[in-house]
Specification:
CATH architecture of chain A: 3-Layer(aba) Sandwich
Number of strands of chain B: 16
Mean pLDDT of chain A: 96
Structural class of chain B: alpha/beta
Radius of gyration of chain A: 21 Å
Shape of chain B: globular
Distance between the termini of chain A: 58 Å
Shape of chain A: globular
Number of strands of chain A: 13
Distance between the termini of chain B: 50 Å
Number of domains of chain A: 1
CATH class of chain A: Alpha Beta
Low-confidence stretches of chain A: none
Oligomer: heterodimer
CATH topology of chain A: Rossmann fold
Order of helices and strands of chain B: EHEHEHEHEEEEEEEEHEHEHEEH
Strand order of the largest sheet of chain B: 5-9-4-1-2-3-10
């Protein structure tokens, strides 16, 4: 079976973001960009399915600016068989992403879409669920373990009260949580080999999808800053201050 | 504006997150509450006491027993006609279900709002809370999840009518297999007044529990953990505080042996008082702590427990 893995290019998780002074958003000039960490986990799981003989082909897809080729090349080096880049503006809303992915699913006919549960830039946590709805498929979100059977996939989900296990009929969407696996690094020989793997470029237009943004972002501002407090020198002083100064004990 | 609020519950108890999301919903318009579940009449009765709501819709039927996204989303779609907004708390259920409803209605969801500026304008955190985005939705229907810690719960004491609704919604896409729930005798992390969180510095599950549990018990505190501590299996997944775990805002948050990665800080920086205990005096957590103690946690934690 085919597995489709959507990947997003985001500001690297180690970067402390800077906001533009006019409130128009995050300043991304000369900022390190990487594959969204949850998507790395989804990709790793797809590659492991292939290595275990349970998947035949892993297709990586990214939607965004032309530089998205970088993360797709990384995906190819980590074991994806081929890649598709859909050229679009930055920050396309999840509903548009889901519509573009639905069009790709219609062409590629994967039986499983494995993707990150959320992107660490807009923190929306929507695209997987939306894609499932548009396709009329079942969904297993926030997965920390998956087991593939013939016609269904068993998904253990990280939920507020602990772990929940569900069975989702195939075809299905699974979104990855942090503990699904630990992704591998691309090795140099694999990075070289990845240069020869196919990477197709398309557009929402060619896929028959109209990208229409629905939300108007009015401003992006800094949250209130917490001032550093004081250093206490002993546990006794800490207890005293919590009791008599902060009044929380 | 008419708002339908999806209740968060486990078929027996209404989760406090619902009363908090109700505050946000009431800032948008008139609110009805949907309780979807199985054998959940007691939840509907609790929901009916929420101050300010119009009525409770009770969908008590086997497909809704485990809050599976597919049938609950179909039910919300079926009920959506007269409503201008559908709202849920940003719990794992709310996050799982609502985007599905949004896509079925062809509208863009607004995730995890922390402020209602007006019925069409909201504020939400992005980049792990390192920026706040103010945005407007002109969608015909608003689909919104609410960060519970950002809103006070509405009072109880009302007596709204409960209306049974029948639905033909079924689920042929997914099924519930089982669950491993964390011991529910512990203090609930999401709503605790005091939270004590541990990091990787504890070195083992045994030390994590041996040192933190007595302190938590003395303070009546919930136990939290950093991602590193959960990955190392010192604590279960539902203890994780942070960007992708739970977001908490207790009166007192004590971070022990936690360096303070931005992903962790995202989940606790709205605590009223933050205490950090760490042996590394350059740990980033100290930049946001009200009280910083540079100390070896293996000595400081037992001493703190004994002094309380």
């Amino acid at each position: 079976m085919k597995v489709l893995v959507p990947l997003k290019r985001v500001v690297d998780f180690n970067v402390n973001i800077r906001l533009k002074a006019d409130g128009s958003g995050v300043d991304k000039t000369n900022v390190k960009m990487s594959m969204n960490p949850f998507d790395e986990i989804a990709l790793e799981e797809a590659v492991r399915l292939k290595e275990a003989g349970k998947a035949d082909e892993v297709i990586a897809v990214s939607i965004g600016v032309e530089k998205g080729q970088d993360i797709l090349r990384t995906a190819l080096a980590c074991g994806a068989d081929r890649a598709i880049l859909v050229i679009a503006e930055e920050d396309v809303e999840p509903l548009n992403i889901a519509k573009i992915l639905a069009a790709i699913v219609a062409e590629e006919k994967p039986e499983l879409v494995l993707m990150g549960k959320q992107a660490i830039d807009n923190d929306c946590n929507q695209s997987g669920q939306m894609l499932a709805a548009l396709l009329g498929w079942g969904q297993g979100t926030f997965a920390s373990k998956i087991e593939l059977a013939d016609d269904a996939i068993q998904v253990t989900r990280e939920v507020d009260a602990g772990l929940q296990t569900i069975k989702v009929n195939l075809p299905a969407i699974v979104t990855a949580d942090l503990r699904l696996n630990t992704p591998r690094y691309a090795t140099l020989p694999n990075i070289m080999k990845a240069k020869k793997k196919p990477l197709d470029i398309t557009t929402p237009d060619k896929l028959g999808v109209e990208v229409r943004q629905r939300l108007t972002i009015l401003e992006t501002v800094e949250p209130p800053v917490r001032q550093p407090g004081i250093r206490v020198t002993s546990v006794a002083e800490l207890v005293d201050r919590l009791k008599n100064e902060a009044g929380v004990l | 504006m008419k708002v339908l609020l999806l209740a968060e519950h486990d078929n027996s108890v209404l989760n406090e997150a619902t009363a908090r999301a109700a505050s946000a919903a009431l800032a948008i318009g008139e609110v009805d509450v949907l309780v979807a579940g199985e054998n959940c009449a007691s939840v509907a009765q609790s929901a009916a006491t929420l101050s300010g709501i119009g009525k409770v819709l009770l969908a008590d039927s086997p497909p809704f027993a485990n809050q599976m996204a597919e049938p609950v989303a179909d039910l919300l779609l079926e009920l959506s006609g007269p409503y201008d907004a559908i709202i849920a708390a940003a719990t794992t259920n709310g996050k799982n279900i609502l985007p599905r409803v949004a896509a079925l209605l062809d509208v863009m969801q607004i995730s995890e709002i922390v402020e209602v500026v007006s019925p069409d304008t909201f504020v939400r955190p992005v980049y792990a809370g390192n920026a706040l985005q103010k945005l407007r939705s002109d969608e015909a229907k608003k689909i919104i999840t609410v960060r519970p810690t950002a809103f006070e719960p509405v009072a109880s004491g009302a007596d709204a009518p409960i209306e049974d609704i029948s639905s033909n919604v079924s689920n042929d896409k997914s099924s519930f297999v089982g669950e491993a729930l964390t011991d529910d005798s512990r203090v609930d992390l999401a709503t605790a007044k005091t939270v004590i969180s541990g990091g990787r510095a504890f070195g083992s599950k045994e030390k994590f529990e041996e040192l933190l549990f007595p302190l938590a018990q003395k303070l009546g505190a919930a136990i939290g953990a950093s991602r590193a501590a959960v990955d190392a299996e010192f604590a279960p997944n539902d203890c994780q505080v942070g960007q992708t775990g739970k977001v908490v805002a207790p009166d007192l948050y004590i971070a022990v042996g936690i360096s303070g990665a931005i992903q962790h800080v995202a989940g606790m920086k709205d605590a009223r008082t933050i205490v950090a205990i760490n042996s590394d005096e350059d740990a980033p957590i100290f930049q946001i702590a009200d009280y910083a103690l540079v100390a070896d946690l293996f000595e400081a934690v037992p001493e703190l427990t004994s002094k309380l």
